[in-house]
Amino acid sequence: MGERILEIVIYFMRHLEENNGRLDGLKQMAEDLRSQGFTDNEINSAYLWVLEQFYQPEFVVEGKKTNYSGSYHRILSDYERDHFTTNGYGTLIQMRKLGVIDDNQIEMIIERAILGPNGKLGAAAVRNLAWSFLVDSAQEGLSDFDIYGTEQNGDLKVN
Questions:
Q1: 87 pLDDT band (50/70/90 cuts)?
Q2: End-to-end CA distance of the chain
């Protein structure tokens, strides 16, 4: 479920970026999201998360609302890059660019990818992992999540 909410968060953050920080047309966006199979609960959860994050003081720069400071440019080494699919790496970059995750969270995602089981993290796995850090970055039981996308009936499988 967290991955689906994060997809909507990314959708909203992209809209904010393209519209100078405005969330105009919420009714149409909600209809578009519903037509893609998202529930009202998921849409509302994502919307509330964006509002909470967007209106934090760190998002105000020189009197303007912003979601990305532009000061962070992380380049993965070949070893690190080998732990992500192309889509997974693209999702990681997109979430950082949109301000969905911060500098520390991107480093934790990279670290988790390296320390995880053999295999590459795809887009869904990156979103699942990012969501777990967003929900509670201090969560102790994070290693219990199967971040490599084993899902049953749309729910994240817990080992």
A1: very high
A2: 16
Residue 52 tokens read as 């909470």
Work out whether the CA dihedral 50, 15, 67, 130 comes out positive or negative: positive
* Count of CB atoms situated within 10 Å of the CB of 56: 9
Asked if the model's pLDDT at residue 69 lies above 70, the reply is no
Give the whole-angstrom CA distance, residue 126 versus residue 24.
Answer: 28
Domain boundaries, the chain: 1-67, 70-159
**Whether pLDDT at 151 is above 60:** no
- Between CA 46 and CA 30 the distance in angstroms is 11
Q: Which helix (H) or strand (E) is 152 found in, with range? A: strand 151-152
Is residue 24 classed as helix, strand or coil in its secondary structure? coil
Q: Record the tokens describing residue 94, joined without a space.
A: 């997109």
What is the pLDDT of the chain when averaged over all its residues? 75
Residue 6 and residue 125: Cα distance in Å, rounded?
12
Which two three-digit tokens encode residue 133? 């850090």
